[in-house]
Amino acid sequence: MRRPTALALLLAAALTACGIDDTGPDPAGPAASGMPRAHDRSAPAVHVYFYSATGLERVSRLYRGPDARQRAIDELVRGPDAAERARGLISFVPATGAGPTLTVDAHGTADLYLPPTWTPGRTALRQLVCTAADGSRTTKVRLHPPADGPPTTERCTR
């Protein structure tokens, strides 16, 4: 039978004693929560809908001011900016003349009035309805055609 050598005993002692006491966890304060955000540094935005290769896409644009709902429609009519075009976003909404007018009543009903010179296609109407619905926090938008015809109720389907 072999006797343990001094080197083997020293190695066994080193492996069993790592020098850390079994004291349990130390309290370290509250959990990390990130940097607090100043209330005056909020970044309000309006949302517009453009098309990409994968379909309708929601885009945020910074805006602080009155009538954010109408501003969203105005931004949609303005079309994608250079960075958005570089990402492949396009718009089917005509960018000429006066754009549509969006109103929202006290009950939250959104009414979108198209200008008399407009004859937008179904794809452009979908962009308009989704932008109006997003800004109005509703699912339905009453679309008033340029002619004297009755309004139709449209839903945003993405």
UniProtKB/TrEMBL annotation:
Keywords annotated in UniProt: Signal
Residues annotated as signal peptide: 1-19
UniProt keyword annotation of Signal present: yes
Classification lineage: Bacteria, Bacillati, Actinomycetota, Actinomycetes, Kitasatosporales
Protein name: GerMN domain-containing protein
Renumbered residue ranges of the record's region Disordered: 139-158
PROSITE patterns per record: PROKAR_LIPOPROTEIN
